[in-house]
Design brief:
The protein is an alpha/beta fold. It contains 15 helices and twelve strands. Strands 2-3-4-5-6-7-8-9 form an eight-stranded parallel beta barrel, surrounded by four helices. A two-stranded antiparallel sheet has the order 1-12. Strand 5, helix 6 and strand 6 (164-169) form a beta-alpha-beta unit. Helix 5 (115-125) packs parallel to helix 6, helix 8 packs parallel to helix 10 and helix 13 (310-321) crosses helix 14 (341-358).
Length: 377
């Protein structure tokens, strides 16, 4: 699979200076951590997931979560597990019949309720567990961290493949100031123990907000909510450091276009989209990459913002090409900034990973070029 596949097959491919590369669930871990991009949540009770993947209903959908936790009712767990297994088995069937290839199937994750559910899903799927990329661990804390990863490790050994874990930080001990730093330091220790199984770390801003009775409006970013911003700062500080850090994903964006003529009040779809754009840009500025989304209309917005600009790309190439120690600083090709080789080297490496996954715009293009044509991609 690769981003913007349909766009690249059409005349608009001139948008890109460098086209996105292909990848699979078996690509390198560091690559996949950035490739997840906008991660679309779907409730486990949804019976159309396989059909929508087969028909490419959502265009360049690259990663999904089938949720067995908050997206379903407590009385729907058995139904959701059964539906999940049926959907994965359907994908396996059409793959075996060569109606689709493995490369056509997005990265699929399952959000479980507790560690034992990982075992249950793997046992139910058997060899079709191959179609999963990993599991999402909600309410991830010091008290359950080891059990989550030990369970995942055991299942991987049993089925002979590597499934990844993505913990979600969303519990009181993380957001409450008096326990936060100690909890994050201990979580970092545990994550390091299982580093090869950690794909990225996610932030549950909705659960954090609920502890204070808060909910941001569509025109307010999560960074405008001071108590959440304060927590994100510490998460990035402890878990996102340059050499030993993890990819940390941005919190969910929960606003989307409702039924025609409803759902906006005095606001338009453009207002909702601009709010998402602002938040994704702030995610990147604050060290977060990737976005939890709950509606397909978010896909192209987030994906388009992850394409690297031509200016960023040339700066990154300049920095990497001069990392041999001969120079300490180089003027940018745009002659509008200095590129310091050592301080900017880590940034440059991340930019080139993004460029490989999402592509690079031509000098005159930006995310707006994709959003204008998003109805066709």
């Amino acid at each position: 699979m690769r981003y913007f596949q349909q766009l690249l097959n059409e005349e608009q491919q001139g948008i890109f200076h460098v086209s996105p590369a292909s990848f699979t669930k078996n690509s390198e871990r560091e690559f996949l951590a950035y490739a997840i991009g906008p991660l679309l949540y779907m409730p486990g009770t949804r019976k159309q997931i396989a059909d929508e993947i087969i028909s490419t209903k959502h265009g360049s959908l690259v990663s999904i979560v089938i949720c067995l936790e908050d997206a379903i009712g407590d009385n729907q767990v058995a139904e959701a597990e059964s539906t999940l297994v049926a959907q994965i088995n359907q994908l396996a069937l059409v793959t075996n019949n060569r109606r689709v290839t493995e490369d056509d199937i997005p990265l699929i994750f399952v959000r479980v309720r507790e560690p034992d559910q990982i075992k249950r899903i793997v046992n139910l799927l058997g060899e079709n567990s191959f179609f999963l990329t990993g599991f999402v661990f909600p309410k991830f804390t010091v008290s359950n961290a080891e059990e989550y990863f030990q369970t995942l490790q055991e299942c991987n050994k049993k089925i002979g493949i590597r499934l990844y874990g993505m913990p979600i930080l969303e519990s009181p001990e993380i957001i409450y100031k008096e326990t936060r730093i100690g909890a994050l330091v201990e979580i970092r220790r545990i994550l390091e123990k299982y580093r090869e199984l950690v794909l990225n770390v996610r932030i549950g801003a909705t659960d954090f907000s609920s502890l204070f009775g808060l909910r941001r409006r569509h025109d307010i970013t999560i960074y405008d909510v001071s108590v959440i911003r304060d927590c994100i700062v510490d998460i990035v500080n402890i878990l996102g450091r340059r050499e030993s850090g993890y990819v940390i994903s941005g919190p969910v964006w929960e606003y989307f276009n409702g039924q025609k003529g409803k759902g906006f009040g005095r606001y338009s779809q453009v207002d909702y989209e601009e709010g998402l754009i602002r938040e994704v840009l702030l995610d990147q500025e604050n060290g977060l990459f990737g976005k939890t989304i709950i509606h397909p209309t978010h896909l192209k917005v987030v994906q388009s913002l992850y394409v690297v600009s031509y200016e960023e790309y040339t700066d990154a190439l300049t920095i990497i090409s001069n990392a041999n120690g001969d120079l300490g600083v180089v003027k940018s090709d745009y002659e509008n900034k200095m590129n310091e080789i050592k301080p900017h080297l880590s940034w440059a490496r991340k930019i080139l990973i993004r460029a490989q996954i999402y592509g690079v715009y031509h000098a005159q293009n930006s995310y707006r070029n994709i959003l204008i044509d998003k109805a066709h991609v």
